[in-house]
Amino acid sequence: MDDSELYVLSLITEYLANNGYFIETSHNNSIFPGQNIEYNIQTQINKSDLFIGIASHFGINSQWVLKEWELAQKNGKTAFFLIEDNLPINPAFEQGNLVVRFNRQNPQYSITRLHSMIEKRKKEKSNNALNWVVGGLLGIAIIKLLSEDD
After folding, report:
1. Of these four, 42, 90, 92, 110, which has the most CB atoms within 10 Å of its CB?
2. Separation CA 150–CA 119 (nearest Å)
3. Model confidence pTM above 0.70
4. For each successive 10 residues of the chain (150 residues), what is the average pLDDT?
5. CB < 8 Å & 24+ apart, contacts of 2-5
6. Helix, strand or coil, per DSSP, at residue 54
7. Chain centroid to CA 139: how far?
8. Contacts of 29 (CB under 8 A, 6+ apart)
9. Which parts of the chain fold into alpha helices (H)?
């Protein structure tokens, strides 16, 4: 992601941290020289209840974007992936994964899809359902903040 997009994540991270949530993002984690990057990422994902992957036109070429997603899936985490709709993605990836494609100029379809997911999960009484509700709300916030729709 570019600097302005990282700013969006910083705002969300700060708000959630101020409200009792522990947030780990790839742009704020503390990996030091000599540390095993994959081990550090896997440890953070293992400690999480929710994983939201974000692939923008800047981040899709990162070797870690899909690796982080793979680790979240392997560890059975509540997870979904926000992907800009202009990015080429293997159709096989979208099968069996919750992938929400979003368009910066017209974000409403994706927001409506996430809203439907939230409404469905709100009726359930479990931690997993709560993770989906929180994740859906975060997804909507991220899409709105990244969109060019006024």
Report:
1. 110
2. 25
3. yes
4. 69 80 64 73 84 72 73 84 84 76 91 92 86 89 78
5. 2/56, 2/58, 5/56, 5/58, 5/146
6. strand
7. 7
8. 40, 41, 44
9. 3-18, 37-46, 63-74, 91-94, 108-122, 127-146
